[in-house]
Amino acid sequence: MKTIRLTTAQALIKFLNQQYIQVDGQEIPFVEGVFAVFGHGNVLSIGQALEQDPGHLKVIQGKNEQGMAHAAIAFSKQMLRRKIYAVTASSGPGSANLVAAAGTALANNIPVLLLPADTFASRQPDPVLQQVEQEYSQAVTTNDALKAVSRYWDRVTRPEQLMSSLIRAFEVMTDPGKAGPATICIAQDVEGEAFDYDEKFFEKRVHYLDRKLPTDRELKGAAELIKASKKPVIVVGGGAKYSQAREILMDISERYNIPLVETQAGKSTVESTFKNNLGGLGITGTLAANKAARQADLIIGTGTRYTDFATSSKTAFNFDHAKFLNINVSRLQAYKLDAFQVVADAKITLEQLNPMLEEYTSEFGDVISELKEEWFAERDRLSKVTFSRENFTPEIKNHFSQEVLNEYADALNTEFSQTTALITINDTIDPESIIICSAGSLPGDLQRLWNTTVPNTYHLEYGYSCMGYEVSGTFGVKLADPAKEVYSFVGDGSFLMLHSEFITAIQYNQKINVLLFDNSGWGCINNLQMDHGMDSFHCEFRTHDNKILNIDYAKLAEAYGAKSYRANTIEELKAALEDAKKQEVSTLIEMKVLPKTMTDGYDSWWNVGVAEVSNKESIQKAHEFMQQKLQIVKQY
Ligand SMILES: Cc1ncc(C[n+]2csc(CCOP(=O)(O)OP(=O)(O)O)c2C)c(N)n1
Ligand SMILES: O=C1C[C@@H](O)[C@H](O)[C@@H](O)C1=O
Ligand SMILES: [Mg+2]
């Protein structure tokens, strides 16, 4: 056996350089680079290894562990899970900062390699700086918190353990059915210890993303179900996007007159302009998609997890007569809603089903185009919302009095409505641009109103809906597709929570555009509480003496070195967008928008749990309403 003497960290970096992925005959390196926040836990080991010989790996200095991991996740998601960044963090708080990001990767099935340092295997200097000490066990460290949010988790306490640990991690990350975060925690002393590694370990490894084929039984069963249905609907989920099923989805939809409805992850697999694409499904869905889903007697779920947002908490469909056909590479997902299961790749399954449907045509007739037309008229109305100081009725009704709305208009010096701003952006920016979002009221507005004309230009993290992903994620998307303009759609709440990687983007000259919708508060949560009978309680951003907070975000962005704009009218916004496009530096456009001017629900319901007893009649009523809804939901 030929061996090579390396530290554990050097072996890790050498191995990462040799991982390749092969999809549809195309072979590419799987690991693009490493995001790093260095501390005492990793600088002298992984830092040293990268300094000595990074190979082809790019090294990017992050500003916050969660932020840089979000960027890595967004990179992988935009690359359709075919390339990753690794993320190295120092121990203790550095590891803890990774937890929210690991959850984001897990909920969205996105591969990312997390490498937090662990406490000393020798225990000689214990307790080391940042080591939490548990009375019941010395074996527990902050890194154990990552177990709950990792698809694969391991602790390396000897240099030779690294070999089996890495092989397992890459097996998990490159399996479409279970892709997610792989976390390898390496003891701080072990990272720098040397071992005589078998040279074979470092030979080029190719991970094959072969498309999983459906069985004859599955195909026959699926074809029979479709042919027996009158009004089938295809739910386009994230799995359909990763499988690149665009053409076959359009072909099947057109040939058999089957409407497409989209989840947040699936949106832009097929562009909105496709005639049978009815847009978003569920709580944040369009009236068109929700109406079609309710009429459907067969739901064909392609690569969907059926989250509560997609199913309107299991009220979106007529469960009394609708059947389900689930096409998914994950058995866990395929089993949902008592479906007929096809555990296989979406694209290949649809391609093989296509000729088996022969002369089939759904009974939707002209309904699809009628629904679409009706929705376009609604979208058009939302593009022209004009505020007035008297008798103004916002989209979210009966929450704020005219007096309070006027107070916002005065304090923020704006009359801009969120829907109008958003549609203006959609109509102005280059259709090739990629938009990124994850939390707040914007995901709902985007899923309903954003028209895509180019595939894979809509990037929503709505599995975890983690505030802070918006800006960091946009940086990751820019790394994945540097030639495109990328736009972060972010609320003031999310921006305040985390925008650390805005600075990293500026630092590395990776131009991103931040579109900041400032309504001075957690608007969607304020809507949620007031919709369910509460008063406005600690969701508006007000000072100790009840004044509306007015933050100059444009000035802040300027201080970071970005070009910034203030745009509170359609004309100002168009001008800012045009100018931002010409810039080489990152930009931020601050829009002050009025609260309650985001879109409302369209024929959907969200089970959020309401207090069973309360001293407010309005909450008692909300509880009663929830109880009525629970009579008609599917129970599981
Ligand atoms: C990390 C994290 N913490 C808390 C939440 C819960 N949450 C969801 S949206 C939201 C407020 C978002 O406010 P903002 O970004 O201003 O958007 P708006 O609703 O006002 O459009 C909160 C607190 C979350 N999604 N993520
Ligand atoms: O609690 C939430 C409410 C949703 O409206 C929002 O989009 C999401 O970010 C969230 O966490
Ligand atoms: Mg807000």
UniProtKB/TrEMBL annotation:
Cofactor note: Binds 1 Mg(2+) ion per subunit. Binds 1 thiamine pyrophosphate per subunit.
Reactions catalysed: 3D-3,5/4-trihydroxycyclohexane-1,2-dione + H2O = 5-deoxy-D-glucuronate + H(+)
PROSITE patterns (UniProt xref): TPP_ENZYMES
Domain Thiamine pyrophosphate enzyme N-terminal TPP-binding: 31-132
Residue stretches making up the Thiamine pyrophosphate enzyme central domain: 220-353
GO molecular function: 3D-(3,5/4)-trihydroxycyclohexane-1,2-dione hydrolase activity
Gene3D superfamilies named in the record: 3.40.50.970, TPP-binding domain
Database matches in InterPro entries: DHS-like_NAD/FAD-binding_dom, Myo_inos_IolD, THcHDO_hydrolase_firmi, THDP-binding, Thiamin_PyroP_enz_cen_dom, Thiamin_PyroP_enz_TPP-bd_dom, TPP-bd_CS, TPP_enz
Entry keyword annotation includes Nucleotide-binding: no
Keywords: Hydrolase, Magnesium, Metal-binding, NAD, Thiamine pyrophosphate
UniProt-annotated stretches for the region Thiamine pyrophosphate binding: 441-521
All residue ranges annotated as the Thiamine pyrophosphate enzyme TPP-binding domain in the record: 439-590
Entry-linked Pfam families: TPP_enzyme_C (PF02775), TPP_enzyme_M (PF00205), TPP_enzyme_N (PF02776)
Pathway this chain belongs to: Polyol metabolism; myo-inositol degradation into acetyl-CoA; acetyl-CoA from myo-inositol: step 3/7
Physiological role: Involved in the cleavage of the C1-C2 bond of 3D-(3,5/4)-trihydroxycyclohexane-1,2-dione (THcHDO) to yield 5-deoxy-glucuronate (5DG).
Name recorded for this polypeptide: 3D-(3,5/4)-trihydroxycyclohexane-1,2-dione hydrolase
Annotated source species: Fodinisporobacter ferrooxydans
Gene name tied to this protein: iolD
